[in-house]
Amino acid sequence: MATTPSRSRRTPGRPPKARIDQRARLLDVAIGLFAQQGIAATPLSAIARRARVTPALLHYYFGNREQLLDALVEERLLPLLAPLHRDLSTLADAPRSQIDAFVRDLLQLLADNPWLPPLWLREVLGEGGLLRDRLMRRVAQPVSAKVRDAITRAQARGAINRDLDPRLLVVSLIGLTMFPLAARSIWSRVFDAEDIGPAEFARHTIALLERGLEIRDD
User: Global pTM?
Assistant: First the structure.
């Protein structure tokens, strides 16, 4: 008796790959629009139009805007930031190499994800930014004390300048990387610096951090 060929089956409860790809594409479209014009100015209907899908499909995958923002943080921002947390978590043990790694990793991350600097400036640092509270809870608050304590321990054994405020070092690191990358389209034209990539930027930033301006009064 002939047997009917068995159909390939997927793991129960696991959505087919096409749905996963569609969901990821919609999240990509949303992130692009959020970085370009801001979250508050981007209704779900605008995301659906840009993605050429129905609003109902967007609601199917994400429900509402709050759930979409949760997905952005959980599925994009937190995985991107995880290596940076690892760099900083061992800062007290090897401050020079870990700060070097942090700067290089962050600059490469920003270069690979050009949507991140404008989104960060607008929705995290900007007053009323709609990602601020989420990232404060999930990133800043859990990591800040750990980083502060690591820097304090490194200062105690003379590995980092004792005149630095441990609470401000990460602020300075972000300021030397995130802000310049967000303004790259301006300074690269002003200084004819289109050739500067992540490696060159990292070398400059690390030299500035390690040796400063070495200003000498004549």
Answer: 0.80
DSSP assignments along the chain, one per residue = -PPPPPPP-PPTTPPPHHHHHHHHHHHHHHHHHHHHH-STT--HHHHHHHHTS-HHHHHHHH-SHHHHHHHHIIIIIHHHHHHHHHHHHTTTTSHHHHHHHHHHHHHHHHHH-TTHHHHHIIIIISTT-TTHHHHIIIIIHHHHHHHHHHHHHHHHTTSS-TTS-TTTHHHHHHHTTHHHHHTHHHHHHHTT-TT--HHHHHHHHHHHHHHTT-----
* Alpha-carbon span 155 to 125, nearest angstrom: 29
Q: Which of 87, 124, 128 is nearest to 109 (CA)?
A: 87
- 195 backbone dihedrals φ, ψ, rounded to 5°: -80, -10
**Of 119, 94, 114, 125, nearest in space to 38 by CA:** 119
Burial 103-133 (b: 16+ CB within 10 A, else e): bbbbbbbbbeeebbbbbbbbbbeeeebbbee
d(CA 33, CA 28): 9
**Residue type at position 89:** S
Structure confidence by residue, pLDDT tens digits, 68-100? 999 999 999 999 988 887 777 777 678 888 888
Report pLDDT digits (tens) over 115-146. Answer: 999 999 999 988 899 999 998 888 887 777 77
Identify the segments of the chain with pLDDT beneath 70: 1-18, 20, 92, 217-218
